[in-house]
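User: Can you recover a sequence for this backbone? Please restate the input before giving your answer.

Assistant: Of course. Working from this structure:
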């Protein structure tokens, strides 16, 4: 049994189909948006050495937010494929997560979209396999999403440790 910690956020999912793999790939390439590509190239050329990394990340997030607002004003909306199930993730661990309801079929492969509460918040596509009715093993997640998912786990662990210290004095 993997080690899991409490964490609460939403996931939509459905049984795996090839069309979901296309959406998974598309959502991964969207993380490399034009501003992201520009900054990545600037970093590779060493043009960001003198820049505060936190300030740069906030500026990128602001630029993306302006892009989102422009799309909203133009009535452009990201269209996602319809998925059959929506529930809450209650526990997470490295390569695993557990949902609230018993809806998985053991051994079945699924595609899902997590609403990962990171900065900036975003939808994280994931392909996973059910270990039992509630527990899933992550099979495929984009590199950037893995880093953010793992960082979120570590942040939750630190928060839990602080809570335990506060309770025990």
């Amino acid at each position: 049994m993997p080690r899991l910690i409490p964490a609460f956020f939403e996931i939509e999912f459905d049984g795996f189909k090839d069309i979901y793999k296309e959406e998974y790939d598309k959502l991964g390439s969207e993380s490399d948006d034009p501003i992201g590509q520009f900054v990545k190239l600037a970093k590779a050329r060493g043009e960001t050495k003198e820049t505060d990394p936190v300030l740069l990340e906030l500026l990128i997030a602001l630029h993306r937010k302006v892009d989102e607002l422009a799309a909203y004003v133009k009535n452009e909306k990201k269209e996602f494929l319809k998925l059959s199930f929506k529930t809450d993730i209650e526990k997470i661990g490295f390569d695993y997560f557990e949902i609230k309801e018993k809806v998985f079929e053991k051994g079945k492969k699924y595609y899902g979209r997590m609403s990962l509460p990171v900065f900036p918040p975003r939808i994280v596509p994931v392909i996973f396999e059910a270990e039992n009715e509630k527990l899933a093993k992550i099979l495929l997640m984009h590199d950037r999403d893995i880093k953010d998912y793992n960082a979120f786990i570590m942040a939750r662990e630190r928060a839990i440790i602080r809570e335990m210290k506060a309770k025990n004095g």
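That completes the design. The longest helix spans residues 143-168.
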